[in-house]
Amino acid sequence: MAVTRPRRVRLDAELVRRKLARSREHASQLIAAGRVTVGGAVATKPATQVETSAAVVVIEDDSDPDYVSRGGHKLAGALYAFSEEYREGAGAGQESGVRPAAVGAGAGAGAGAGAGLKVAGRRALDAGASTGGFTDVLLRAGAAQVLAVDVGYGQLAWSLQSDERVSVYDRTNVRELTLEGIGGEPVDLVVGDLSFIPLGLVLPALVRCAAPDADLVLMVKPQFEVGKERLGSGGVVRSADLRAEAVRTVAGRAAELGLGVLGVTASPLPGPSGNVEYFLWMRAGAPALDPADVDRAVAEGPS
To answer: Is 82 in the same domain as 106?
Structure first.
């Protein structure tokens, strides 16, 4: 009589099947954090083959905010750097590896005296929402409403799609956004995590949809700003000078649209290929970018 062997599958896929992880990306994060055991041994690779009958356990970590995607930690780091309100509230202690950023003159105006960037109670737009890491962070920080915009379809985590504070704009090219397209009411806050396009090409649309005193907190990805011919192996921008140039280029384009810079900080986590990324906090009428702030952000960020 033939013996039936237990079926073997990838560990990350099995975590999703058992509903121990929301997605394979989330499963990979749990594994990388050392929070997954198989048969009592800590797992180290998402591709590890496991039997469907194996004892797979996810170790709880109450200190981990556990956002719907890795990107959530990036925006949380930026809020920690730019917002005293966030550091003292929901974000306190969560991003201990991130230093508060230097902010420009006028950072308190319209944002709450001494509080820096304000999220609570605001209507926000998440450009390039994908699975919703940034949207998740905004809601946890008290945003009244988030418009989740993405050119893809069905990527936003179900927990966010079903949240009454979230309006989903799938199959929407951010570059073509109009105020009428988002209901005719300008937003108070814009965040963005966009790939494969220079930010200068989408800034006009984002400004069109923003209120005059809105804050824009956008991630600058040097790999999409400096040109393919200047990328290193694996598509990584290894030169600190090139990374600083990318930030200055985006700030320069923003200045042409009337935006100044209130803060700049490195993302606490690199991109999937190892690229170091940066956040610019901008607002109409704010001071021009201080090159020294860019140099400091590059020097203090991941290398």
So the answer is: yes
What are the φ/ψ torsions at residue 42 (nearest 5 degrees)?
-65, 125
Same domain? 103 vs 236? yes
Q: Is 221 found in the same domain as 280? A: yes
| CB atoms near residue 190 (< 10 Å) | 24
Q: What integer pLDDT is reported at residue 214 of this predicted model?
A: 97
Residue 251 has pLDDT above 90, yes or no: yes
Per-residue confidence band for 147, with pLDDT thresholds at 50, 70 and 90: very high
Q: What is the pLDDT of residue 136?
A: 95
| CATH of residue 216 | 3.40.50.150
* Phi, psi dihedrals of residue 6, rounded to the nearest 5°: -60, 140
Q: Over 60: is that where the pLDDT of 104 sits?
A: no
Q: Among residues of the chain, what percentage have pLDDT more than 70?
A: 84
Tokens 């090219």 sit on residue = 173
Residue 30 confidence (pLDDT): 84
Q: Are strands 210-220 and 187-192 parallel, antiparallel or unpaired?
A: parallel
Say if residues 199 and 218 touch (Cβ distance below 8 Å). Answer: yes
Q: Looking at residues 254-282, what average pLDDT do you find? A: 90
**292 & 229 share domain:** yes
Whether residue 198 sits in one domain with residue 106: yes
User: Do both 288 and 163 map to the same domain?
Assistant: yes
Sign of the alpha-carbon torsion through 173, 73, 131, 276:
positive
- Both tokens of 166, joined, read 């979230």
Query: Do residues 64 and 33 touch, judged by C-beta distance below 8 A?
Result: yes
3-state secondary structure of 194: coil
If asked whether residues 111 and 234 sit together in one domain, one would say yes
Task: Check whether residue 110 and residue 184 sit in a common domain.
Answer: yes
Domain of 130 in residue numbering reads as 71-300
Residue 48, classified by CB atoms within 10 Å of its CB into exposed (0-12), middle (13-18) or buried (19+), is: middle
Q: Which two tokens stand for residue 193?
A: 């995590």
